[in-house]
Amino acid sequence: MDLDAYLARIGYDSTPRVDLETLTAIHRAHLLAIPYENLDVQLRRPGDVTVQHAFDKLVTRRRGGWCYEMNGLFGWALGEIGFSVTRMAGAVGRTERGEISHGNHLVLRVDLDRPYIADVGFGDGTIEPVPLVAGPMSVAGYDFRLEPLDADWWRFHNHALGGAPYFDFTLETASDAALNTTCQWLRTSPESIFTQFPIVQRHTPDGLVIILGRTLRRIRPGERTQTLIETADAFVEVLAGEFGLDLPEMRALWPAICAKHEELFGQPAD
């Protein structure tokens, strides 16, 4: 694994330093260059929470990834630069799902003048790191909020047009073994949202572009539009054109994608 190769992958050509300016710039560059996606889960390909796996997939093979891969790679790169990084276990939907949600998200804390939450793995979350301070915040025109729940848990509230409305997290260092157990469940269980339908999300300079099932969404502050992807060829073309993902093998999944989309979502609203 090579830091220069990662920085080239995200298009960062400055000299990295251990400061907030660098952290913010690399956070933004990562999200503009590398999409969030669960397509290996859809294709039933193996994976884990190791940095080696994330580097090979996201840098060497120029794919996207989900939280374990996106934040795993990002946290490793920050550590190589010299940042103090803590891998923390998150829980998307903890109120609704209970303990089964623990570790279904990987979150990073970066300690500089104060602690920051750095999260390139939440898909449609904040494009920049945010201070670990209770209260509302606005980033790139979207409103977020951090809320302490009790002595152990915090909650990150996503913006109003986001997918998952929140995730909880603790400040303790996560167990990689526990994260990997949850990762494998999310990869294989029919109850996992990630086995249900394709999820692909990418930040753009003015918003977000997202695939859910066969729906293509575009989000800008205060605005969300969506269209239906009509064919397998169009789906593969959108993956390549909007997300930089060359995956013609997704054509074989198109009938299942259409069937599950209709079961879960019906037709998208105008």
UniProtKB/TrEMBL annotation:
Gene3D superfamilies: Arylamine N-acetyltransferase, Cysteine proteinases. InterPro entries: Arylamine_N-AcTrfase (IPR001447), Papain-like_cys_pep_sf (IPR038765). GO terms for molecular function: acetyltransferase activity. It comes from the Bacteria. Coiled coil: none annotated. Pfam families: Acetyltransf_2. Belongs to the arylamine N-acetyltransferase family. This is Arylamine N-acetyltransferase. It comes from Phenylobacterium glaciei.
